């Protein structure tokens, strides 16, 4: 029956990890997959996660019975509060519906399915470039994908004019995906003033904003500051969708925890929207898993744990900024040809180095450095000790 099934190609980011694991070289570096590691290169699990896990035996969900289709109610309430702010009028007026999802990916996919059913315009605009899996997650439901200009390779910054022009010419009702903060893969975010201009244009052109929020708190170290882009759009009373991920911000990668929030204009609309989300979820996976969401709930509902978690987030974002500066300084010290200022201008977990595919191939072959072929490096996987080695390798790649 399956005789003719063709062999699918490997998925690049997984292939990079597999190649790294196989490499016996002691100096090897893994800067591919977006996982935050400690200074010692070990996987990082926030201390609060360990603490809460110890108490889960007494959790109300310890019986492991099915959750409601929309997940743990308290998880949903608290998730909405960290995205929109606990004093958000949209929450107070019950205009937001939030449902637990199978991580950020599941939230994006659920959002796409909802939009395909209920948004009259089936065009979705993605930034160019964007998180690679966006194309898979958002296209399957019958939505047509287009891109809008975002990154300017000449300045290695935002192509703001191009972005405005492309959104200005999008048809009414088109969905526009924005990275709420810490754009993956470029590390290039609009400024607050630019977000405000984007918001005005989106509302004027009656486009539909769909935020992907996978790095809240990892950019500036503050959940509130990193939530500003979304909160601007919520403050104006209009609609938007937010896909949230706890993978990076709580180190819960494999637990697959996230949420989808839809901000509506009235509480009654939000209630009806939630009823439809249930109908989409039911045939997909019926109801979400408990464990990861119970951990998140345990942290968010406890004042002390919440404080400890946000302090850990701040320390993580500080370390990202520190290695960014160390890499920049190391390249300057070596007199590596080119302007490397973009490394310290970019923000969040990634640096879009500007290295081309051939140079990346050189780094892998000669220096055992594994990274995305587009030149993106995950700073979360880079320790201070490894910076000189990486800088030597980049220097060799660009001067050979
Ligand atoms: N959106 C972006 C921008 C991401 O970088 C990622 C993960 N790399 C995701 C969504 C998916 O996150 P999750 O692992 O929670 O599915």
TrEMBL record:
In eukaryotes there are cytoplasmic, mitochondrial and chloroplastic isozymes. The lineage of its organism: Eukaryota, Viridiplantae, Streptophyta, Embryophyta, Tracheophyta. Its EC number is 2.6.1.1. GO terms for biological process: amino acid metabolic process. It is an enzyme of class 2 (transferase). Keywords: Aminotransferase, Pyridoxal phosphate, Transferase. GO terms for cellular component: mitochondrion. This is Aspartate aminotransferase. It comes from Corchorus olitorius. InterPro entries: Aminotransferase_I/II_large, Asp_trans, NHTrfase_class1_PyrdxlP-BS, PyrdxlP-dep_Trfase, PyrdxlP-dep_Trfase_major, PyrdxlP-dep_Trfase_small. Pfam families: Aminotran_1_2.
